[in-house]
Amino acid sequence: MDIRVLEYFLMTAREENITKAASLLHVTQPTLSRQLMQLEAELGTKLFERTNHSVILTNEGMLFRRRAQDIVSLAEKAKNEVTQNEDTLSGIISIGCNELKSVQELAKNMTVFQERYPKVKFELYSGSNEEIQERMEQGTLDMGLFLQPFGMEKYETLPMRTKERWGVLIHKDAALAQQSAVYPGDLVGTLVFTIHINTPAHAELKKWSGEFARDMDFGANYNVLHNAVIVARERKGAVICLEQDCHYDDMKFLPLDPQLSVGSALAWKKGRVISRAARAFLQFLQEQRVQDT
């Protein structure tokens, strides 16, 4: 199994058509079909369901696609790291980010860094703490912007200055929207959308709610806020979330009272060898922090 064959597989999975995929890959259709069959034989499983006009991933194919994407991404990342020009800093720095206000703080530093090193590019991945951690363990991310509290024993960290404030996004026509804040017990009787359970942040929110937590109607959990807001707006529910810089139509943000604010931190694996560009960016961030104190 080589990277080229994985790229063939991913293109075919995306296009769901061997003829079209072969054209985009600049290979003949028989060549592509043969490579895919050899891949299936090597893996000992069927990756595609084939019809006269299309190919659809099997369940095994869907699982393999995720791993193939990680392998191809990691191979490209490794290639970029070892082929950097020693005289000119270049390469791709991959960062996982939660939906946090501190992203703006990070973005300002990225802008200044790129003005100094224009050949360095950034690749951003949005996800939860757990999703970012998984990708960092796989090596597909150089660093991640984590919401605290979070287990950081295996990481070096740089705390962000921005504080993240918990609150509720609720439809502007809801009775609760007339208040200036949300108090423990206010959400009882309202359909509530919250972040995934079994996370430190969820435990903090449950602690804040106190005895009312068991009486709340949790309609769904989410890992991407935008999708939760769309559903909550349609169903006139409330989304427990961090305060955002963006605006959502027909929704109003109310802070929690007593206030619940948390920090965030940029983290990278202890002892892991990272690219010259990533090392330079971390050094730049640390120098900026010293200058600002």
From TrEMBL:
The protein's matches in InterPro entries, at most eight in alphabetical order, are given as: HTH-type_LysR_regulators, LysR_HTH_N, LysR_subst-bd, WH-like_DNA-bd_sf, WH_DNA-bd_sf
One cellular component term from this protein's GO annotations in UniProt: cytosol
Q: Where is the HTH lysR-type domain?
A: 1-58
Q: Which Pfam family, an example, fits this chain?
A: LysR_substrate
Which UniProt keywords are given for this protein, alphabetically ordered?
A: DNA-binding, Transcription, Transcription regulation
Per its record, what are the GO molecular function terms? Answer: DNA binding; DNA-binding transcription factor activity
- State the family named in the UniProt similarity comment for this chain: Belongs to the LysR transcriptional regulatory family.
What the entry lists under PANTHER family is as follows: HTH-TYPE TRANSCRIPTIONAL REGULATOR YBHD, NITROGEN ASSIMILATION TRANSCRIPTIONAL ACTIVATOR-RELATED
Q: What is this protein called?
A: LysR family transcriptional regulator
What is the organism of origin for this protein? Answer: Candidatus Blautia merdavium
